[in-house]
Amino acid sequence: MYKAGLIGVTGYTGMELARILAVHPHIELTHATSRQESGKKIEDLYPFLRSYKIGSVVISDYNAEELARHCDLIFLAVPHGTAMASAGELYAKAKESGKSLKLIDLSADFRIKDPAVFEKWYQIPHSQPQLLQKAVYGLFDIYEEEIKKADLIANPGCYPTASILGLYPALKNGIIRNDIIIDAKSGTSGAGRKAQTATLFCEVHDNFRPYSIGGKHRHTPEIEQELYLAAGKEIFVSFNPHLLPIDRGILNTIYAPLAADISAEEIHAVYTEFYKNAPFVRVLPLGQLPETRYVRGSLFCDIAVTVDKRTKKLLITSAIDNLARGASMQAAANANLCLGLPLAAGINAAPVCP
Amino acid sequence: MYKAGLIGVTGYTGMELARILAVHPHIELTHATSRQESGKKIEDLYPFLRSYKIGSVVISDYNAEELARHCDLIFLAVPHGTAMASAGELYAKAKESGKSLKLIDLSADFRIKDPAVFEKWYQIPHSQPQLLQKAVYGLFDIYEEEIKKADLIANPGCYPTASILGLYPALKNGIIRNDIIIDAKSGTSGAGRKAQTATLFCEVHDNFRPYSIGGKHRHTPEIEQELYLAAGKEIFVSFNPHLLPIDRGILNTIYAPLAADISAEEIHAVYTEFYKNAPFVRVLPLGQLPETRYVRGSLFCDIAVTVDKRTKKLLITSAIDNLARGASMQAAANANLCLGLPLAAGINAAPVCP
Amino acid sequence: MYKAGLIGVTGYTGMELARILAVHPHIELTHATSRQESGKKIEDLYPFLRSYKIGSVVISDYNAEELARHCDLIFLAVPHGTAMASAGELYAKAKESGKSLKLIDLSADFRIKDPAVFEKWYQIPHSQPQLLQKAVYGLFDIYEEEIKKADLIANPGCYPTASILGLYPALKNGIIRNDIIIDAKSGTSGAGRKAQTATLFCEVHDNFRPYSIGGKHRHTPEIEQELYLAAGKEIFVSFNPHLLPIDRGILNTIYAPLAADISAEEIHAVYTEFYKNAPFVRVLPLGQLPETRYVRGSLFCDIAVTVDKRTKKLLITSAIDNLARGASMQAAANANLCLGLPLAAGINAAPVCP
Amino acid sequence: MYKAGLIGVTGYTGMELARILAVHPHIELTHATSRQESGKKIEDLYPFLRSYKIGSVVISDYNAEELARHCDLIFLAVPHGTAMASAGELYAKAKESGKSLKLIDLSADFRIKDPAVFEKWYQIPHSQPQLLQKAVYGLFDIYEEEIKKADLIANPGCYPTASILGLYPALKNGIIRNDIIIDAKSGTSGAGRKAQTATLFCEVHDNFRPYSIGGKHRHTPEIEQELYLAAGKEIFVSFNPHLLPIDRGILNTIYAPLAADISAEEIHAVYTEFYKNAPFVRVLPLGQLPETRYVRGSLFCDIAVTVDKRTKKLLITSAIDNLARGASMQAAANANLCLGLPLAAGINAAPVCP
Prior knowledge:
The structure is a homotetramer of 354-residue chains.
Chain A: E1 2-7, H1 12-21, E2 27-33, H2 42-45, H3 64-70, E3 73-76, H4 82-96, E4 102-105, H5 115-122, H6 129-134, E5 136-137, H7 140-149, E6 152-154, H8 158-172, E7 180-186, H9 201-204, E8 209-210, H10 219-231, E9 237-243, E10 250-257, H11 264-274, E11 281-283, E12 301-308, E13 313-320, H12 324-338
Parallel strand pairs in A: 1-2, 1-3, 3-4, 4-6, 5-6, 7-9, 11-12
Antiparallel strand pairs in A: 7-10, 8-9, 10-13, 12-13
Helix pairs in contact in A: 1-12, 3-4, 7-12, 8-10
């Protein structure tokens, strides 16, 4: 059993990681940290984990030395800025004790390769540029080999995961022109577990709303960075998120002009070929469309391609579970890979539907 | 009190009309028809209307002669095809008895001016072309004067209402180019009250999904017809609907390339001016965005304009209550106008939030 | 138009009062107070009220003198303890300026007649015992005449409203024995609009849970006080609330042993007779059961009686909208009565279903 | 790998069984039957199972001979009446081919030991009395040894599972008197996947309602049968169900008078002792209460005991996932036991929260 630490257990991504690791056959959570909940058992914070071994882990304050000495692997589930600082400390402490350490960062801190772009969008300077260079973007469908060798993995954002997987084959194969609109919809767990009026039940339930539209959302540069790598040229997207009254799930409807006269069947063949070795991307048969419930609680990204012949556009619809594939289960998959375990170890449960 | 009939009381639009008319100061529902529920009182079908006078109205079988003789106004809340046939009969019977009759048709039968376009999208021929010519499209924000004089009103579709109101000022004023995407999301009452597995609670709740995307939805030609009138030239839209796990509400996110270098402030001024005499369109201050809860149970259409400077697009977000503004309350507003009543009579209740 | 003030506009009861007063024909909200939101317009806090006159009312800090001088009527929508202090101040200021003033208190401060009982359950002493004596319990179905003459009205709690109306006729007529269980379920708006993790969307949605069961909930003494008056003897109830993943609505399932061999039909007749002059209590026909949606947004309390012959129990199910009948619309009804207006003025909208 | 058949794949219990067996390490679904969906693949009916081996199983018509010859184990997920007839046929065919066969019946057909009681509540005679005698009630926390040796297992009802587990220790130990009220609340998946207006999204969402209260629900005799065995004397319960706007989950609030002056601590100790060897019953620490989300997608039954000192009652709150513990996952657990597999094989996933 590998020993894992989890820095920041109180948010939804921390909660989901605890849930996944509760039954992981090869990774055991031995350390969980939180300032507010220090001293509590995990089962007191998360009663649904009572009776699992993980439930009796006592939450502690963050202590870099302790974590670096005891853990083979650490998940960082803390806000951006905090994550990069912790990463620096943890590697320093690990080095002192001559220990190798794998870090999976669920924040945005190591996703943007260019520190200037990071600083522009996140409004803080990057304090760990040398680590940034080492970090591998943890989209395992694309970067599996790099992840296997990585020490530091930048776990992708939820919206970027669904956006990039949806667009990659089309851009790689020159199917669409560079005028991309992503109309994204996310479940409310994506907004975090912090107490705030805006995400109270009565503010979200039986409601639907856009937010941060028109080029303001921080996932924009992350998406554009990876699409640049797919297309081999600079790509601009109009990324526009909305808040869904559901717990889990992202569904993106992506619009782009077709670059040439190409049929839906041909595009479908391109996608199927591109993802033939990606067990957790399901390219749906033509005519079927993704639904968030079909991926709930799972690592799947479901993708459909649809051609609007009247307006000569490609419509790509992609769905993930924002907490699972969009955060913690993807982190566990990345942990599996960088520890030399099978990709699906402990995370192959079927989607929970209904 | 004007006497009103309601043909097709069992669907959600019929239910909503009954709810509205229960407290209308000038229109009294005297006749309600349904094949399946004939013989029941309205309060037995809809227990929430118990203790209102409307509750004791006995539902009857459809009888054109009876309806035409007794009613000043009839709402048709039946499927397309059936509606046009009934309209033909009702006018014939009214003529026989020398009576004037106002019809508000909530189906699609009289919305599309061109019978060939209607036939292409609805797959049935139009049996009442002479009535079609008389019909007025019931978007009262645009056609108030025509509606006041009309006998037959084609009540707009739910998606078209939110789409047309959102796009009209921009097209009228040449602000955008003709490459329009409408990413539409609707509450489940829009799918009707028919027993079917696809709209069972457990198939919709905690789920989100696209449907009929890529140019397949029948509201496309209705939207394009009215936008043509706004723009003075043919307009094509890529209209793509999604199903929300909410009861009521449509929110459209509309994308179009800016035709020129124009600021958000200027566009906002254009919209404000255009709707200055439209009491039920609320152009939101820049920076605010519509939410479905803010229009729930009301006649309002809330509209926001947002400019995505990075991609030079105009984003228009518009929200309505699909049952109220998108169907039955709009029908009641049209009834008010064509009967010579004030637009807002009986339908000025504030949105129900939360 | 009577001029009304609203102290505490930021909670859900304040929001609902603003919504109701937005279209009230005889009461105009002229003053609204809030510490946090002072300086904002109501339409900025509650965008759904934009375009109503009330929307442009500027929220101010609490100022007893100003309020007492300008308002005919003041709603107190602040926490217990704060409410009684304000009431004392407002009456003092009104007296100074020789003005009569009606107060409707939505908190618990004036509901419990016995200050010792109040202190036991609310853990604070009662600072206004002389006002407590003047206060009338605002359950207008029972106390209409007293309310018409009252200056200070203790607006009933949400659970008590549904509980007392459900039990009153049975206790008044000696139908049941004194071993009453109230299994109560409330929508989440009852938990307030304060930012807290426990009522975040993802903690409530797709979930159901009991809370404060086993005699701990503060509505217990309020219910028992009124049931004592109904029965003419001390009554003890086991009151046990649960949290529903809905916005609005309370449904109580009340269990009591039958005192004698009496049929459902006889009990139904007793209830029908008791409420024959109560337009907002609907005693359902035998065999029908209440649902929260059937009273949503309305002043109705729906009540059904069911006899469990196997176990010789009376089951009373009662439903209200906790925000409307259980708080703000009941407050508006009480305001109507004490101002000499018709009970239903401005609050007769039909329930919003779906 | 054991080979399993599933008769009746189209309902929610069939769907959930398919989901569970998709990843079961020792049981493979090889046959699935349905009249309406015959010829389809499981992944076409349930797209969330695409890419699992089970997804490509072709649904066939029911053929007793084929099923009995190829399957080691068959799950019956068909309505009562149909299930007993199939069971008779399947055993006859198995006998012909000299094959042993395990049957897990998810219907009510083999739960009620007394055919007269069955007939009274289900309104049909029992056609297989000899099988009824052999059948073991599949509540494995109580009957584990019997289940291990059984060929025919009557899988418990959803409400009975939560009710019986909640009451068993109290009745076994004489803690409560025989005046029991079960106020039960269930998620909508319990109402089945049949197309009907009453369970459409817009009829259930944002709503809560009682149904079949007052001694009418068919789970009553099943609960009383098992409680008789616990108490050693006849027990009557007033069982009263309600419909929750959630997908999965049952929460029962159970009321009974305390038989003696006993503390919450003592009762808690009794429960803890009683379930010390039951890994899927979690007796919560005093002060904690169950929530449906904490057991979602799992085999757990969470139980809390609370004493209402004012009214001298024991309150037992118990929660399960009605589809998992209340039906299909309990069926899989029973399959594990009667096949000689570990109880938790393939079904130990942690609850899905949120």
